[in-house]
Automatic annotation (TrEMBL):
GO terms for molecular function: carnitine O-palmitoyltransferase activity. The chain crosses the membrane at residues 50-74, 104-126. One of its GO terms (biological process) is fatty acid beta-oxidation. Belongs to the carnitine/choline acetyltransferase family. The lineage of its organism: Eukaryota, Metazoa, Chordata, Craniata, Vertebrata. Keywords: Acyltransferase, Fatty acid metabolism, Lipid metabolism, Membrane, Mitochondrion, Transferase, Transmembrane, Transmembrane helix, Transport. This is carnitine O-palmitoyltransferase. Residues 174-751 form the Choline/carnitine acyltransferase domain. Its main location: mitochondrion. Coiled coil: none annotated.
Amino acid sequence: MAEAHQAVAFQFTVTPDGIDLRMSHEALRQIYLSGLYSWKKKFIRFKNGIITGVYPASPSSWLIVVVGVMSTMYAKIDPSLGLIAKINRTLDITGYMSNQTQNIVSGVLFGTGLWVALIFSMRYTLKMLLSYHGWMFAEHGKLSTGTKIWMTLVKLFSGRKPMLYSFQTSLPRLPVPSVKNTVNRYLESVHPLMNEEQFKRMEALGKDFATNLGPKLQWYLKLKSWWAANYVSDWWEEYIYLRGRGPIMVNSNYFAMDFLYFTPTSVQAARAGNAIHAILLYRRKLDRQQIQPLMIYNAIPMCSSQYERMFNTSRIPGIETDTIQHIKDSKHIVVYHKGCFYKVWLYYDGRLLKPREIEQQMQWILDDKSKPQPGEEKLAALTAGDRVPWAKARQTYFARGKNKQSLDAIEKAAFFVTLDDTAQGYREEDPVTTMETYAKSLLHGKCYDRWFDKSFTLIVFKNGKMGLNTEHSWADAPIVGHLWENVMFSDCLELGYTEDGHCKGESSSGILMPSRLQWEILEECQEVIERSLAVARPLADDVDFHSFPFDTFGKGLMKKAKTSPDAFVQLALQLAHYRDMGKFCLTYEASMTRLFREGRTETVRSCTTQSCKFVKAMDDPSETLEKKIALFKAAATHHQLLYRLAMTGNGIDRHLFCLYVVSKYLAVESPFLKEVLSEPWRLSTSQTPQQHIDLNKNPGMESSGGGFGPVADDGYGVSYIIVGDNLINFHVSSKYSCPETNSHRFGKNIKRALCDIRDMFGIGKNSTK
């Protein structure tokens, strides 16, 4: 093959006249350009490391400080209060410098020391300022004078033009709440879910824990919080994600969808070409720290640490625990299509491949008629089943030879791509079935056509629709959401397509075409693959999914009720669940703790005493309208308070989880913690971050959001995205094997609950309010 010939830098043959050496100038040129690219990338990282390391100052400020010190010295003014003279005397001992040189060196050394001291002072001051969270509890849109002054000081000490990781060393550590406060808030949260006898028993356990064992465990937790950047995140990653021995497909991985109504092209290879190029542009910005850190009110920074492992990352199975493998750079991706794995190089002539060139590569794969090698087609099922068999198979069958090289190619790829042979997406003639199959395809597919261990898999369907399947341990949904919004924006509004649906630009000759990964999969290994598939398929088939757009009203109407849209939806979910199941349950809503260094998530316990009173009143014909509205507002206000407490490090569940981990390390049993950590979340909810595409300028580009599988066997998982002023997309999951749950029934109850709350306020379409 021509591409294989070009990849060889030189060839030689032995002849009677000696050795005939033939050099390939093109190959040598590619080697040179590859090295140049590598050194350029190292230099950019080195430069960005310096800029980030001295933030909130800048490297140029060193020169300003040193020149200022030297100027005062020549003006016969000593800005150092005698320190420069002491440095001068120390240098004089060497005897190698003239007086003038000593003065210059002394001034430079003092100026540098002063500059470093100013950096640490500014950084510490900024950290102290960011430790204040009173602004979070102010009424929305009404900042006090004190908060405005505080925000001005934050902006003053934040420096100019921050890079992605500029604020990392200035973010405060996650505080450890007091044991008594956490226990009291926990008891308050479970009170509406227990009868009096159950509550009194739990109250006794809680008070005993807070008085006796709790303070001892808390001491170790405090010690960790002083030593580690975050007292929760490493344990959360290890014990919640990496130590799980069951399948990560459905149970842990989540998905992101394409635009709801709009597909920019129906050409599969072209959509893949633009999407892959847009992802690589994002990666380049990430490497160069050109992505701005997320800021609240354009002033308060959030932690960016989760971005570090977005690319070139894979989860590696282990017997007792998995690990996350992350490499600094990767110049290829791996593509799966119809049972075959292909390695695709991303660079040519020292530059990224252009969208049209990537489309050319994808079309080559789609046109390839070669058949899968024995065991290749369903190989990825190993990543969908239980972790221990996969770990053992990896050690036994993939530790050497072709299999090791090919597995390395997958695990060290920038990301994984599946060119799916099915057509998916919303269709107006059958919205229910099409959205259900689209969601299930992204969540689990055929159980062997996504590499579930990769940080994310890009899935491009036959009709041009696409989506992501994301491994959860390395980062949470808002991080992936930021990538995905940027990709969709770049795909449609920056890169674009020709009139016939192809990527813009010209195809190029000389680019290396994709190469098949080679495997030698023994029959014993194929049996392991089939067993993993036998575990994964029932799990996938059991998922009852219902994805639907709710376009009766949206955020615009909710604001007329003068309440948070998230609180509005959460209370509607409580009402819907009570009507669906006839009872209340422990409810999980994901919140973030990224106001702190290396912060991830915290739980908001959305089922509260206040929400239960409101829900019961809604279906009580004897309750007055005024009473219902008052109960709704009280429940919404309390929900917002819980959300703010969670965001500011005063949640319940992460603290109790870490206390439980400490108790296990100390080999002490806590009946209270054991019971708390064993309680099932029968309603798990999450709001997908809102999209940033301007829908007024780009109508039709509404995001579908994303979703996840059910957390409990007898419960519901609900993801939703509030899109613009008139649309909410919901993704509801449960299990067919549970006779009590039904995702479609729950979806109907959600719609009914939202409309009932709207009608309660009298702010519907026919209202004059």
